Amino acid sequence: MSLENEVRQYQQKFADVKSEIAKVVVGQDALVHRLLIGLITGGHVLVEGVPGLAKTLLIRTLSECLSASFSRIQFTPDMLPADVTGTEIFNPKDATFSLKKGPVFGNLILADEINRAPAKVQSALLEAMQEKQVTIGNESFKMAEPFLVMATQNPIEQEGTYPLPEAQLDRFMLKVLVGYLSREEEMKVVERMAGSAPIPEVRQVMDIQTVLEAKKAAESVFIDQKISAYVVDLVNATRDPRAYGMQQLVSLIEMGASTRASINLVKAAKAHAILNGRTYLSPHDIKTIAPDVLRHRVSLSYEAEAQGKTADDVINMILETVPVP
User: Are the C-beta atoms of residues 253 and 36 closer than 8 Å to each other?
Assistant: First the structure.
């Protein structure tokens, strides 16, 4: 089968997944799309939004659509790394140790309010997220495939929280900002929850093997050298805006995006192309997904904060300035 036919099939199957999720979750189309990108690429998604926006319901519903294993980890200040990864338990009866795996062993992992746990607990996720394995004692265990971590954090409440270190932020492929529903969408939610009709059941419309095959297809999506150069220019512009004629950004950026940003931008854009039924990358794919890839990798200066500038403001200026091939 040609790549074009494969991609069309995957586009339809992922569209079916979106339709199933829409039976239960109202709105949040952008977040659903980004989660599917993370699923296809093997990347992870950091979601920032106030409580009560159906983030937990969304990823649980996605796991049901795929018949994939799902684990929810509620991060709290008194957690230990073993609460995430698991530990060895001593059995006094026969003086042996047995292994108890933690909730991180699953296909889809919800790390709820990840910034409420101290750095040592947050770092327990790093090996699983980056190396796709967890070491317990002297033994390493491979993670399930596909493996996706969706972490959430509250942008408002800062008391009792621990900001994610830069090294961990960089492990997230995408950072998605989730806002309130529109008036019409919230009306649908209220009518659905206030009514007597049961919440629709979600069917399995795709299996894990198909996701893994779609991942391979995404790797084969064609990228022209001009598009590659465009990606590198966008990321380089966050490090040296003066070289791209953006003198006004020099004092606003403390630190630019890493090389991992360039890699993840290409990977995410390829998955975006697959979801739109294309076998090649266009500049539109790059521009659409760039804010989600870059916003948590661009550190702003105190001057930017004083001016009320956000990372999205800086990224949008870069996208408007860097020439499109």
Answer: no
Tokens linked to 99? 């292994």
* CB-based contact 318:241 (threshold 8 Å): yes
pTM of the model: 0.90
Inter-CA distances, 222 with 155, 216, 225, 259, Å: 37, 13, 10, 21
**CB 209: neighbour CB atoms within 10 A?**
9
The pair of three-digit structure tokens given for residue 117, joined into one six-digit string: 């746990």
First to last CA, the chain: 31
**Which pLDDT tens digit goes with each residue over 283-324?**
999 999 999 999 999 988 899 888 888 899 999 999 999 998
pLDDT in tens, 44-96: 999 988 777 778 888 999 999 998 889 999 988 888 888 888 887 877 878 77
Question: How distant, in Å, are the alpha carbons of 20, 55, 166, 186 from that of 199?
Answer: 12, 17, 40, 16
d(CA 136, CA 283): 44
Task: Walk me through the domains of the chain, giving residue ranges and CATH numbers.
Answer: 3-208 (3.40.50.300), 221-321 (1.10.8.80)
